[in-house]
Design goal:
With 673 residues, the chain is α+β, with helices and mostly antiparallel strands. It has five domains: 8-67, Helix Hairpins (Orthogonal Bundle); 90-317, 2-Layer Sandwich (D-amino Acid Aminotransferase, Chain A, domain 1); 323-432, Nucleic acid-binding proteins (OB fold (Dihydrolipoamide Acetyltransferase, E2P)); 437-583, 5' to 3' exonuclease, C-terminal subdomain (DNA polymerase, domain 1, Orthogonal Bundle); 602-672, BRCT domain (Rossmann fold). It is built from 26 helices and 24 strands. Strands 14, 15, 16, 17, 18, 19 and 20 form a seven-stranded antiparallel β-sheet that branches. It has a five-stranded mixed β-sheet with strand order 2-13-10-3-9, sandwiched between helices. Helix 25 (647-655) links the parallel strand 23 (638-641) and strand 24. The longest helix has 23 residues, at 8-30. The N and C termini lie far apart (62 Å).
């Protein structure tokens, strides 16, 4: 009987049966790794359900399989405080460290509890941690880990994940909280990248970043188009006596787990499991960076408590880092937010532990001397804890002839001729002479908020000093953690000025991409270069992954500017800051300027304009797609002059037969454009 022939009562019965059958198929497919029917048959059932629900929309329920994509794109994610802190685990790298971990815990337990200890183990998945909340069996909220105390409400996106139960399979009254990792399986990731390449688009970097980025899209349709999976690893509420029983409940509720969880009575058995997973982890469907070891009894686990941000009763064993070889293309020096000069090796891009490595920290001058690493060397790269790229060894036998030892002080003078550096006694790090971290921070904040950058009204020099000196702001990211009450507590602010400042900071989250790149304060990157970078890469993430060759393809970028950009994105502090800003909702927007009225034209302004300041006038031109430069060349479209223009510029314009236009002609030009 077709949907057209069914009356409402018949449709209600049919819809209920279809939902039950589709949900049962998904449970067997995702959780039990069994197939009760072909994928095409399941798609046919879902299509029938969709047709029936379209005919009888009052029968649609929030937990229907058709309702995984729901709602319009959000303006932003709401902050949610976790009912119980989402903690991270301390890392261990050897059997000895695991023995020490157990010994420390045993000292805190009675002899009776010591005898009750069993070890629960599971593979550690590399994804985005998320907490799912259910009320009387229905999914009501999904929250990212965030800082462990406060996360973001990503319910609409999580609802699109096929293996997330919208309704628990067993009748559970009251509140249920399940925690897990949102991942993309390796096979799905490879298929997705094949599709990207086929469509002429850039492949994604790695599954973890893609999973995290997909969940943090404001439009749930984007998340729905990605092959995301939720892999449960903990049941917070209701509490169970052991981690083993918690996992059993998770599977009964309808959640997919790794399938690698086990319980052991001795550490020797745990070490055997580490060896087993170390040998077989490449065959797992998802990426992993270690194995979790917990004391199985949850009463003992809870009583052992937390130290800092990590529980005493659990650790994460990290597998030995994967290694690869590559060449050192250059060594550049990055100046961090504290004034410390950190050398960075620019590498021929190579894949290590599932992600592309383009640079590695060399830490300091002593480390360079210890390794004797030189430009042109072939080196062995590894990831410490599968995260931070490091140079393990230089392969001297492959060293090209006529290489030179890296001269650290000479490199500092060449790369930063206007700065003085000192190496305080007893330290291994060179620092900018006479600079304190607070002074550098204040300058960075002032520039970040300045007119050429994000133009944050109310964040001038004096207010920046007040915010930093009061300890309300310790980094650029802290600007986005301010609220009206915090700002209003300072002497310089009243309620209205505090509200205006917070509104201006909030508005800067979606600033144009060129303005944001300018605001980062990358050495040698001004407003016009930032526009060129934005037009080439379209996002900060793509710019951060650029190679020297990519950068040198841009006409107005030479080797010095390229090295400065590479150094900025090779600095761990800078990358942590960018991730923080992203997590706080800073999402600069890119607009294609190729079709704007003045696209392809180049202007220079000389002299004082009556209506606009220099920066404002340049912004007007750039907003219309024009390029604004500082010197007259053959490619200059026109020289715009105000009062007292520079003689050298007007003379060169006359020599090259470049048109010279007045302020009135300039105003007419932008009005018409």
């Amino acid at each position: 009987m077709s949907a057209k022939e069914l009356n409402r009562a018949e449709a209600e019965v049919r819809i209920a049966k279809l939902r039950e059958l589709i949900n049962d198929y998904r449970y067997h497919y995702h959780v039990l790794d069994e197939s009760t029917m072909s994928e095409s048959a399941a798609d046919s059932l879902k299509h029938e359900l969709t047709v029936l629900e379209e005919k009888f929309p009052d029968l649609v329920t929030p937990d229907s399989p058709t309702q995984r994509v729901a709602g319009k794109p959000l303006d932003k994610f709401e902050k949610v405080r976790h009912e119980r802190r989402m903690i991270s685990l301390a890392d261990v790298f050897s059997e000895e460290e695991i023995k020490d971990w157990l010994s420390r815990n045993e000292k805190l337990l009675s002899s009776v509890d010591q005898k009750r200890i069993q070890f629960f183990t599971d593979i550690k998945m590399d994804g985005l941690a998320c907490a799912l909340h259910y009320e009387n069996g229905k999914l009501v909220k999904a929250v990212t880990r965030g800082d462990g105390l406060v996360g973001e409400d990503v319910t609409m996106n999580v609802r699109t994940i096929e293996n997330v139960p919208l309704t628990l399979r067993t009748n559970v009254s009251g509140h249920v909280e399940v925690r897990g990792e949102i991942v993309i399986f390796k096979e799905d990731f490879e298929k997705l990248n094949e599709k990207q390449i086929k469509n002429g688009e850039k492949p994604f970097a790695n599954p973890r970043n893609l999973a995290a980025g997909s969940i943090r899209q404001l439009d749930p349709k984007i998340a729905a188009a990605r092959p995301l999976k939720f892999m449960a690893y903990d049941l917070i509420t209701p509490n169970k006596p052991t981690h083993r029983e918690a996992y059993e409940s998770l599977r009964e509720y309808g959640f997919q787990t790794s399938g690698e969880d086990k319980v052991f009575g001795t550490l020797e058995e745990v070490f055997g499991e580490i060896k087993h997973l170390g040998e077989t982890r490449q065959n797992l469907p998802f990426n992993t960076d270690g194995m979790v070891i917990k004391i199985n009894n949850r009463d003992i686990y809870d009583r052992l408590g937390i130290v800092g941000k990590t529980p005493r009763a659990a650790v994460a064993f990290k597998f030995p880092a994967e290694e690869s070889t590559t060449k050192v293309l250059d060594i550049v020096i990055s100046i961090g937010r504290t004034g410390a000069a950190t050398p960075v090796a620019i590498l021929d891009p190579v894949v290590v532990a599932g992600s592309t490595v383009r640079h590695a920290s060399l830490h300091n001058a002593d480390e360079i001397a210890r390794l004797d690493v030189r430009i042109g060397d072939t080196v062995i790269i590894y990831k410490a804890g599968d995260i931070i790229p490091q140079i393990k060894e230089v392969l001297i036998t492959l060293r090209p002839e006529n290489t030179e030892k890296f001269n650290y002080e000479k490199a500092l003078k060449e790369q930063y001729p206007e700065l003085e550096f000192e190496r305080p006694a007893g330290e291994v790090v060179y620092r900018v002479k006479g600079e304190t971290s607070d002074l550098i921070l204040k300058r960075s904040l002032e520039y970040y908020a300045s007119k050429p950058a994000l133009n944050i009204e109310g964040l001038g020099e004096k207010n920046v000093v007040a915010l930093v000196d009061s300890k309300l702001v310790g980094s650029i990211a802290d600007l986005y953690r301010l609220n009206v009450s915090k700002v209003a507590s300072l002497e310089r602010f009243a309620d209205l000025s505090a509200k205006n400042l917070i509104a201006a900071i909030e508005a800067s989250k979606t600033a144009p991409l060129p303005k944001f790149i300018t605001a980062l304060g990358i050495r040698h990157v001004g407003a016009q270069t930032a526009i060129s970078l934005a037009n080439k890469f379209h996002s900060v993430e793509a710019l951060a992954s650029a190679t020297e060759e990519d950068l040198l393809e841009i006409p107005d970028i030479g080797k010095i500017v390229a090295e400065s950009i590479l150094a900025f994105f090779a600095d761990e502090d800078n990358m942590k800051l960018l991730q923080e800003l992203k997590d706080l909702g800073v999402n600069p927007t890119y607009t294609d300027t190729s079709s704007l009225p003045l696209a392809g034209k180049s202007y220079i302004i000389s002299g004082t304009l009556e209506k606009y300041g220099r920066e404002e006038a340049e912004d007007k031109l750039r907003a219309l797609g024009a390029t604004v430069t500082s010197s007259v060349t053959k490619t200059t479209t026109a020289l715009i002059i105000g009062e007292k223009p520079g003689k050298s510029k007007t003379d060169k314009a006359a020599k090259l037969d470049i048109p010279v236009i007045s302020e009135q002609e300039f105003l007419k030009l932008i009005d018409e454009a």
